[in-house]
Amino acid sequence: MYNKKLKWKSDFEKSVIIENFLNRGWIKSQEKEDDSTDWNVYWATVWNVRNIFNPKNGFRLNDQQIINHFPNHYELTRKDYMVKNLKRFKREQDKETYEQQGWNFDFLPTTYIFPGEYSLFVEEFHKCPNQTWIVKPAARSQGQGIFLLRKIQQLKKISGTTVTSNMTQLNLVSKENYVVSKYIDNPLLIGGKKFDLRMYVLVTNYKPLKVWIYNKGFGRFCNEQYTTDVAEIENMFVHLTNVAIQQYSDKYSKKHGGKYSIDALKFYVESAYGTEAFQKMIDDIHNIILTSLKSVQAVIQNDKHCFEMYGYDILLDNNLKPWLIEINASPSLTTTTPVDKNLKLNLINDVYNIVLPNDDFSDNQQKQQQINKIGGFSVLYDESLDLMNRKTQKRQSVKIWK
Amino acid sequence: MQQLDNQEILMKLKSSKQFWDIKKKIKKGFNDQQKIGVNDIQKFAQSCEIEDQLTNLISHILKKSKKRETLKEDQIDFLNTSKIKWTELLFKNLDIVHQKTKNQEEDDTNTDSKLYIYDEKNLLAFLQTFKQQQSSALYQNVQFQSNKLLNINIPLKSSQQILDKYQYLLLQEELQDEKINKIRKQIENEHLDIELEKIAQTFVPNGERCLLYLKYFEFDHQETILQQNFTKLQKECLHQLFYDELLEIDGHEISEDTFYFVFQEQILTCLKCFIRDKTIKENIRIQLQNGIKKEHTEFQLPITGFFPFKNISKYVAPLCYLSTKIHIIYALFKEFFCRYFCFLHAISSENNSILSLCMQIEEIISTNSPKLFHHLKVIGCDTLKLIIHQLIYCFVGDMDPPHILTIYDQIIGHDSLEILVILCVGFLNKYKSKLLLAKNYENVQQIFQELREDKFQELVQFAYKQ
């Protein structure tokens, strides 16, 4: 099956990427420069993708090249742009029509983008005196720079000067934007601990939109018992689920890495809450994925050379309602446990089986056929299908998790 | 013995689907007849076996209402004296463990991890000593078969009887949604345990398992009482016991398990409450240790009447999937332990006891897979030594939680631990070809260290494969 010696290039020295290339018999591109173009398959950083698609470089991908990001993926994956696009999309939609199709927007916590929406935030802050807020840099990752806020004065951390609620604008020390959201302080707890879900979604085309969802994901658990006690508000081991943070807890285990499979979560929710509760939860998660992708469909530069595998971070509250936290363009491919390695190895393998079936770049029949499942990926949404078939696909989407 | 009056029996009957089916049948039998006397009903009932069905139903209600007493004395004297010896041995182990914990407190570099009172290997080694004693009563009329690890004259069900009883599992197919919905409604409406057992034998939907278990144990309208009892026990946990330390150490293994690490704190809380629970002694079906009150010792048996042992956490872990409420998890664990798991740690000739289950496994393997049985013996790795961990801990850690809870369903379904015999036989058959190539114990260990996934239905299939 894999008999074509395609050339690969990777900006990441990750075993799950490189092993997959080697297993296919592909050969590494010999050109050492970052801007080398002698490759067929490139697993690139977002910055290198931006350079490649920068018109000033005058570089055009040929028909035998494929790359793992869309040029302006940040419309979806920067926290501030994601919020902006979702709000815009919501305003544009006819609410009744959208809900009739079984979709909704009720998955984003109330969020303001700093510095621009500071005064709107202050107004809301005063309306909800007991509300905790979570402050995040718009373009950073791994939990860096995140903190919980209960007093406006805490914003001194990012402004560098005293902040009061009388101020009508906020000046930030760094040039970066921040997003400030209502903190979901009633997360679903398992064993008394908070977690969020990491799910993998592959988009092979934006126009028309084609979305695949992976049937293996995991919950990332905090190591400390959850509490809303104000004294623990700065304890990141209670509140932030990023592995990059939790690995420094003295309760961290290398055996499981705080990762709880989605199969185990499914079984828990079904057993403890009932099958219908699980199905509703999954429907709501599918809604989050599709609505967020549709919100950027008009603005993303679609390109036949591109695909993108996103890491969706979703938080469940204690009513089993899922909330969208963020979408990652470069979900971590570091493996922390044997189970994790197995998952990510198969994940990348399945990505390439979808985007490059039989190592073939041509628009072959297999790509166009209604194949709904490849490896752990199932088609969640295919806009190229007619409306009737799309409705059938939606009804069957819950079977992905059976 | 608690006796039910007629009114109470009628109430219990009315909570059974079978009762209403019988009533429907009788009504149909008389059509639109205006005057129906008791004699008419009796004659009709006798003619179409309804009387037998009703009699069975009532006698089942009466049998279940009878308060079960804890079995203290075994019918075989030798086993009673063995239980005393086992308890004495455990007291000695407790002293050793206590000394080790003291040494560890004083010397941080001493990391001896054997901080438990006994494990499954210790128990099996003790059971093995019975053979050496060769009491004439024990071996009367028994052909002494030196190749078996345990071969003692206790009443035993025939292996074929057990295999036949569970053969229906081979025919189980995946159910359609319609059938699953029907079972859901049955569980919601049914109260009689005999009916719940039938459902448990067939198929239990994940979403209704907790309800079925609660109904079977008659907890479904007792949540407030369960919560109050648990809260009282939690308060008692503020006063530390030495055994708490052993339970915390025991929890380390569960805390490394990818399926159970999230429940680590809940499991420990349940176990700390368990060893303080005064009601265990009167509810448990069999006495595990002979409760000798030793003079001049620092520790006595916990109030439960038995010592906590290695991997006791494994009995709690799968139940954590069933409810978000810890007092429910605790109530289910307590009931499962008192009714079933206690037998896995009891020196006894009872059907469910570890001794009987082990002997039945040896019997089936030596008869149906003699080549494997002999080969394992030759390479110094007895069948029972291979399987004892899976048997005693009901495959927790070897199978994923959905499969473990299917085992628990079968345990309830037949009010018996015999399903473990079937699964152990299946387990050995599954790895037979690799085991036959093993040259020594280390080879065998390597086989089981490889990443493997054992599933309930798969092991059942292998149990019946020749």
TrEMBL record, chain A:
<keyword id="KW-0966">Cell projection</keyword>
<dbReference type="GO" id="GO:0070740">
    <property type="term" value="F:tubulin-glutamic acid ligase activity"/>
</dbReference>
<comment type="similarity">
    <text>Belongs to the tubulin polyglutamylase family.</text>
</comment>
<feature type="domain" description="ATP-grasp">
    <location>
        <begin position="313"/>
        <end position="356"/>
    </location>
</feature>
<dbReference type="Pfam" id="PF03133">
    <property type="entry name" value="TTL"/>
</dbReference>
<keyword id="KW-0067">ATP-binding</keyword>
<keyword id="KW-0963">Cytoplasm</keyword>
<dbReference type="GO" id="GO:0005874">
    <property type="term" value="C:microtubule"/>
</dbReference>
<dbReference type="InterPro" id="IPR011761">
    <property type="entry name" value="ATP-grasp"/>
</dbReference>
<dbReference type="GO" id="GO:0005524">
    <property type="term" value="F:ATP binding"/>
</dbReference>
<dbReference type="GO" id="GO:0015631">
    <property type="term" value="F:tubulin binding"/>
</dbReference>
<dbReference type="GO" id="GO:0036064">
    <property type="term" value="C:ciliary basal body"/>
</dbReference>
<dbReference type="GO" id="GO:0046872">
    <property type="term" value="F:metal ion binding"/>
</dbReference>
<keyword id="KW-0493">Microtubule</keyword>
<protein>
    <recommendedName>
        <fullName>ATP-grasp domain-containing protein</fullName>
    </recommendedName>
</protein>
<dbReference type="GO" id="GO:0000226">
    <property type="term" value="P:microtubule cytoskeleton organization"/>
</dbReference>
<keyword id="KW-0969">Cilium</keyword>
<dbReference type="InterPro" id="IPR004344">
    <property type="entry name" value="TTL/TTLL_fam"/>
</dbReference>
<keyword id="KW-0206">Cytoskeleton</keyword>
<keyword id="KW-0547">Nucleotide-binding</keyword>
<keyword id="KW-0436">Ligase</keyword>
Automatic annotation (TrEMBL), chain B:
<feature type="domain" description="Rab-GAP TBC">
    <location>
        <begin position="313"/>
        <end position="436"/>
    </location>
</feature>
<dbReference type="InterPro" id="IPR042507">
    <property type="entry name" value="TBC1D19"/>
</dbReference>
<dbReference type="InterPro" id="IPR000195">
    <property type="entry name" value="Rab-GAP-TBC_dom"/>
</dbReference>
<protein>
    <recommendedName>
        <fullName>Rab-GAP TBC domain-containing protein</fullName>
    </recommendedName>
</protein>
<dbReference type="Pfam" id="PF00566">
    <property type="entry name" value="RabGAP-TBC"/>
</dbReference>
